[in-house]
Design brief:
Number of helices: 11
CATH class of the largest domain: Alpha Beta
Number of domains: 2
Shape: globular
Largest sheet: 9 strands, mixed
Bound molecules: fe (ii) ion
Number of strands: 17
Distance between the termini: 49 Å
Strand order of the largest sheet: 6-7-8-5-1-4-3-2-9
Length: 362
């Protein structure tokens, strides 16, 4: 029987200083600590901080021993996403079926238990150094996973900004690697294609990309897979692959029911967004037709709008959240639209090109 993916369980990161990274996600994005593992819980090789908001859980981990295998990942990628963890009905079946179809195992199914019950976890490799972890947790009531303690109440409790769940998770590949990765998801995971962007659709005068979005059968998992396309100047995807030293997770999109309020809170918290030229808003209604929001409100918030045949969506993008121009975040609200903002790519790319020019990487 095919295993079922119920949704994203958590996103795992390897970072240089999980304690400080946790404070970034707390103070900027409104996540609150919910679980912890480290010296105080008897874990001596790494520290793990878990933060939550809505259904989103982030696991930040830092190795504490010189010979810890996570150090090699840190040296190569800097702070980066390591694992996109899926909550599954049967982790054993998920691991067995995907490895039988050719996925490389990283961790065979393991049953972990404590006084709160048990979980089964396993993981397989996907693009670059990224993993998919399978988590089966229907028999578990603890704060995160066995071995984790509930996080001590923090000195400053963050105010959540309305983030509900992960809308999509994007992976950047090297040139020519998109199609093999997409067919890997079709073959190994039984995912299907729901959206495609050709370089002719989205190129600016200078830069371009190609993208295919794959989804699981219930479409709770949506994963755009990008690759650079040739242009007059260097694609932002190529810039990512060079600084990440290989493929990896480019951005996560967090869903909100009220993007105007969410973005006002994020800006007040000091989150830095890509700058959108004023002229974008002068012709907005000509491009997208009638919308519920006031254009002036969107202009002052820097929120972008795009329409497809099913409705429209509102979105905006942060600048990279570490020194390398690698991982960033998107915030998105959908009003019927099920696509990913193709109509905004040109304005967005031009904004990123200005940032690339400042970095000397265009
Ligand atoms: Fe996105």
């Amino acid at each position: 029987m095919p295993f079922e993916i119920l949704g994203v369980d958590h996103v795992g990161y390897v970072v240089g200083n999980a304690k400080q990274a946790a404070i970034y996600y707390q103070e900027r994005f409104g996540f609150n600590p919910c679980a912890y593992r480290g010296l105080e819980t008897g874990c001596t090789d790494r520290a793990s901080h878990v933060l939550a908001q809505g259904k989103i859980r982030l696991l930040l981990e830092t190795p504490m021993q010189a010979d810890h295998p996570l150090n090699a990942l840190l040296a190569r990628h800097g702070d980066a996403v390591r694992s996109l963890a899926f909550r599954v009905t049967d982790a054993d079946a998920a691991w067995r079926q995907t490895t039988e179809r050719g996925a490389v195992s990283v961790q065979a199914p393991e049953r972990l238990e404590d006084e709160h019950g048990f979980v089964v976890v396993a993981s397989v490799k996907t693009y670059g150094d990224t993993l998919h972890t399978f988590v089966q947790r229907d028999g578990y009531s603890g704060p995160f996973l066995p071995g984790f303690a509930a996080a001590a109440p923090s000195v400053r409790k963050a105010t959540p900004v309305g983030l509900r769940y992960i809308d999509h998770m994007v992976g950047n590949q090297g040139e020519g690697e998109m199609e093999p990765v997409v067919s890997w998801y079709e073959r190994i995971f039984g995912f299907h294609r729901i959206w495609t962007v050709d370089d002719k659709d989205v190129s600016t005068e200078f830069t371009s990309l190609r993208s295919v979005v794959v989804a699981n059968p219930n479409e709770r998992i949506k994963m755009p897979i990008n690759e650079p396309a040739p242009g007059l100047k260097k694609s932002q995807i190529q810039e990512y692959v060079e600084f990440n030293h290989g493929p990896g997770v480019q951005h996560l999109a967090f869903y909100t029911d009220d993007i105007v309020t969410t973005v006002a809170q994020l800006r007040a918290n000091g989150v830095e967004f890509l700058d959108i030229p004023d002229s974008y808003y002068d012709t907005l209604l000509d491009r997208v037709g009638p919308i519920d929001e006031e254009v002036e409100q969107l202009r002052s918030s820097g929120i972008l709008v795009d329409r497809d045949d099913q409705g429209y969506l509102l979105q905006l993008f942060t600048k990279p959240v570490q020194d390398r121009p690698t991982l960033f975040y998107e915030f998105i609200q959908r009003k019927g639209a099920r696509s990913f903002g193709k109509g905004n790519f040109k304005a967005l790319f031009e904004s990123i090109e200005r940032e690339q020019a400042r970095r000397g990487t265009l």
